[in-house]
Amino acid sequence: MRVGAALPDPPFEFSTKDGPAGFDIALMQRIAGMLGRGWELVPYTGSDFNGIFAGLDDGSYDCVASGTTITPGREEIADFCTPYAISGQSLVVDVLSNPNVRGITDLKGLVVGVQQGNTSQPVAEKLVADNRAARVRVYAYHEIEKALDDLSSGGCDAFMKLAPVTAWFVRDRPRLAVVETGITVERLGICVRKGDVVLRHAIDRAQAALAADGTLTALIKQWLGAGAMPPSSDA
Question: Which of 20, 70, 11, 69 is nearest to 41 (CA)?
Fold first, then answer.
């Protein structure tokens, strides 16, 4: 099974000296094994995350597992499996540069960084449209490290991304802190080529079995921590 994913996006997927690791990697390896198939990671390197779905149509990969939020627009171009987790946008700042920013209510006059094609982008753009932030700075999808560096150098004042990712990155950056979580509620899931009912149902069955025996919850706890929860926990 060829799995498309945009790296680096820890803790969903990232590279190590021993090979790829992360939540999506662990989950898809288990699902592929349950389906009696091999597993291959196909990295997506485009600057806009939404470009990842084109690889389904051109046959570059069979499915996408990349911390992907299910949205109406994406459901028009790909078929999503049952959601595997619930998460939401979070806000990270440099606490020395912007000590008074404690959440999105404190962004007036400030620049919010996002990755191109990420679901944080429309959230940040709405803040600007409502005059609650000055502007949005859009980074290429693979430029997350640059965006986080810019929080301290003045390139942007705050950065928005799913909570598991920001929590991962601030661990080794003592000046940075996640100041707000739960800005949105988003369903994350695997998707397949539009019309590939056979593979979608097969993944759904395997994922349901992993949910029933506790494996899915354990993987979420191991990799995503407090920034995500199983879909059954969504109120």
Answer: 20
Residue range 203-219, pLDDT digits in tens: 999 999 999 999 999 99
| CATH class of the region 2-86+187-233 | alpha beta
The residue ranges of every structural domain in the chain are: 2-86+187-233, 89-180
Fold annotation for 89-180: D-Maltodextrin-Binding Protein; domain 2 (3.40.190)
Instruction: Please give the structure tokens belonging to residue 158.
Output: 């705050």
List, for residues 150-165, the tens digit of each pLDDT value. 999 999 999 999 999 9
Give the closest residue to 161 by CA, choosing from 100, 115, 93, 122.
115
Q: pTM score > 0.85 for this model?
A: yes
Q: Are 169 and 10 in contact (CB under 8 A)?
A: yes
